[in-house]
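In the previous lecture we treated proteins in isolation. Real proteins rarely work alone, and many bind small molecules. This record shows how such a complex is specified: first the sequence, then the SMILES for zinc ion.
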Amino acid sequence: MRLPFRAVLAALAAAAPGLAAQALPQTTAERTDYAATSTNAEVGAFLDSLELAGAPVRVSEMGTSALGQPIYFVIASDPTVTSPGEAAASGKLVVYLQANIHGGEVEGKEAVLALLRELAGARRELLRTLVILVAPDYNPDGNDALGPQAVNRSEQSGPALIGQRADGKNLDLNRDYFKAEAPETRASLARVYTTWDPALMVDLHTTDGTLHGYQLTYAPPLDPNGPAGPSTFVRDRMLPALRKTLQDKYHESIFDYGNVETPQAPQSWDTYAPLGWYGTNYVGLRGRMAILSEAYSHADFKTRVQVTHDFLVEILEYTGRHGDEIRRLERAADRQTALEGASSAPRPSLAVAYRLASRGVEAVRLEVMQQVRTYRLPVRDRFVDSLTRPLPAGYFLPAADSDGAALLRLHGIQVQRLAREWTDTVEVLTGTELNWATREFQGHHLLEVTGTWARTPRSVPAGCYFVSTAQPLGRLVFALLEPEGFGLARWGAFSRAPGMQLGASAGREFPVWRAERAPRAPSRVLP
Ligand SMILES: [Zn+2]
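The predicted 3D structure, ligand included, written as tokens:
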């Protein structure tokens, strides 16, 4: 249905370019004076109008949602780029802006649509240094599950009708990045992260109700297991600079994302969990830069759209100005990660458990009893390890685990399959204790695995998989496969092995083994 309509309008636009140029569309939020937010169909119509009016955008679809809706995906570029290869050849940095991962958190969607329109005019300059990818409505099913704001998101100031947090499979997409069960996650892994490999990802949200004195809060990637260079650049250079710019240029007050445990007697300002289940943390594990943006839920809808828009503009300006440095840091991270896995650089010890750490005591503005007050609090904006394991050369997975191998391939991780048996000393988790959470979370009973590591000679049969850490995604390999951490084991990924089923209290040994060196047996790299 969409293509013929587009073709007709394209013909009209070609015949009357002057007319088309006047017809830059308004967002639903703008048209309704911020009483309403766009449905997914309205997002599609807006993007079509924009493209037909001659804006430097190409509209496509990243994939299809659980309920069959298109997940719109826009490539903004000048001159036109339509593929990752062309983007690489252009020498420009690729940036990915993702809005509406949580269906009711709607201002990011309206802000990116307005920004895309501005790329047709005043902000076209941004495309001299950047290729900008945009998913304006990453969770179309959640977006269109409209209900009263007071019901769907009680701690939010409008608009009157908004969608729901989860996707069409009732999954929270911002907990799905490792297990990738949602079609939206799978689409973004296949069509964005492993293909375009964006240098920077921005994930747009609304806070869940904490009362503070900022229009927007932000966070860098938080998992200390990620390559340090890119994430540290975001945390220590980019975000402080953006905070100052938003204040100086727009008089908008922004700060690190955080919560207080007891609002009546605040002790510290604490960020959220460092796990790679969350999008921006996941991107950090890939050695790329990412920013979590959380507009203040108690600010009115128009204010939230505005501050999100301004934050995005300044992120893009900053990224464009620092393109060479960003690229250098990310290439160095890729190289260093692969060297560590190959033992050509010292192998790091990485976290399987974490604790919050403070960057120091600072003024933090909290709202208590309808008054914004300043408190001197430790700003706990980062995590350090509280229990570590050394990075191994890689992991062996059982031959039966073709699903696991396929999931790793979806993440863009190189996987080898042994063509012959290989005998070597490996590390095996023995005497495992399995603690299944009693409450269900995202359709799973999360599994905590503990045990004792033993070095032991083993025959690894032909058909088993070897996943090397000597690759640019080596840190992500650790995060996904280290049994005691928060990786796939936590989601029960290996629990079909004997003794590992839900309800079992102990398995004989964990089916994923740590390799001390890469196997010297013939193997095939999976396509
Ligand atoms: Zn959110």
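Summary for your notes: The chain is about 30% helix and 25% strand. The two ends are 35 Å apart (CA to CA).
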